[in-house]
Design a protein that fits this description.
alpha/beta; DNA binding; Rossmann fold; DNA_pol3_clamp-load_cplx_C; globular; DNA_polIII_delta
Length: 330
């Protein structure tokens, strides 16, 4: 069974313990890890790992010892309660083994939770979970978290009350921060407000939010958005020397131009003050305009597909060419 959107978020927050299996996959390893952590905690509770009700199996180990999966699913714990067998970093090479495990699963066995990287629609691993009547398949993509997901993170960090302006600020930050960084920020806010029963304010958010999201990446994106073509290549060389890969650059550029598009369309209602880059980005959005920003996003999506394809073109060269094209498009 395939779940998407809000339905998938609700399921990951409270998985059905009667299901045989759950597949969580996505290109962003941090996003997958966080959702897997949430689902496993909901299934076995905070004491589950300490009570040996969680068994972790690496995909590479299962290739050497396939029988370990069946043994783990049928094993009994010394402690009462539901159990989970977690298979991490699975690929299509484990399809046959996991098919057999789901087929042989019986009530009382541990629930099988599998994580994987980006899977295509043709993936054999994805297909067995999609089609199984008692298993769930959830794909996680690069979309920012929804309001409901952020509210769930706030509740788990002890933040029950948030001013509307602060919530809009968090929503805007979620479009720029990686999932792990966003969770760390919310946990920091929870600690900050631990003894304060009042709602989280936009001023408190501004005080604790990162001053800049990957400052050097911001520098190159500003150079592109402001048409400073000669600055693009030197800034890219600096990022490349730091180990930043082309796909990360493309994701960052796409997020930046999506933010500009929201500003140009009036859809971004985030309050001023929590993000020091906001005024600069608003000026960029005004100069680009809706039509040119849509063209820019089309180019970045095309570049992203090229980078993730089997093309042998050097990734950084492909990315540099796209950014230089954008810097001359205004």
């Amino acid at each position: 069974m395939i779940l998407k959107g809000a339905e998938a978020s609700r399921y990951l927050a409270k998985p059905d313990p009667a299901r045989a299996g759950l597949l969580i996959f996505g290109q962003d390893a941090m996003r997958v890890a966080l959702k897997r952590q949430e689902a496993v905690a909901a299934l076995i509770g905070p004491e589950g790992p300490a009570e040996m009700r969680l068994a972790r199996l690496a995909a590479s180990d299962l290739r050497r010892d396939p029988a370990a999966l069946a043994d783990a699913l049928m094993a009994k714990s010394f402690f009462p309660g539901p159990r989970v067998v977690l298979v991490e970093d699975a690929t299509d090479g484990l399809t046959q083994l996991l098919t057999g495990a789901l087929k042989d699963w019986r009530p009382g066995d541990a629930q099988l939770v599998v994580t994987a990287g980006g899977l295509t629609g043709k993936s054999a691993l994805k297909k067995i979970f999609d089609a199984h009547p008692n298993a769930v398949s959830i794909g996680l993509y690069d979309d920012p978290p929804t309001r409901d997901e952020i509210q769930g993170m706030l509740r788990s960090s002890g933040l029950a009350a948030v001013d509307p302006a602060a919530m809009e600020g968090l929503l805007a930050l979620s479009r720029d921060l990686d999932p792990g960084d966003l969770r760390q920020l919310i946990e920091k806010l929870g600690l900050y407000k631990f003894r304060d029963a009042g709602p989280l304010t936009v001023a408190e958010l501004a005080a604790l939010a990162p001053a800049s999201v990957e400052a050097e990446l911001d520098d190159v994106l500003d150079a592109v958005a402001e048409g400073r073509r000669t600055d693009v290549a030197p800034l890219l060389r600096r990022l490349e020397a730091q180990g930043v890969n082309p796909v990360t650059l493309c994701i960052g550029a796409t997020r930046h131009f999506r933010s500009l598009h929201r500003m140009a369309s009036g859809a971004d209602s985030a309050p001023a003050g929590f993000n020091r880059r906001r005024e600069k980005m608003q000026r960029q959005a005004q100069k680009w305009g809706m039509r040119r920003l849509e063209d820019a996003l089309s180019l970045l999506i095309e570049t992203d597909l090229t980078l993730r394809s089997s093309s042998r073109a050097p990734g950084m060269a492909v990315m540099e060419r796209a950014l230089i094209r954008l810097s001359t498009a205004r």
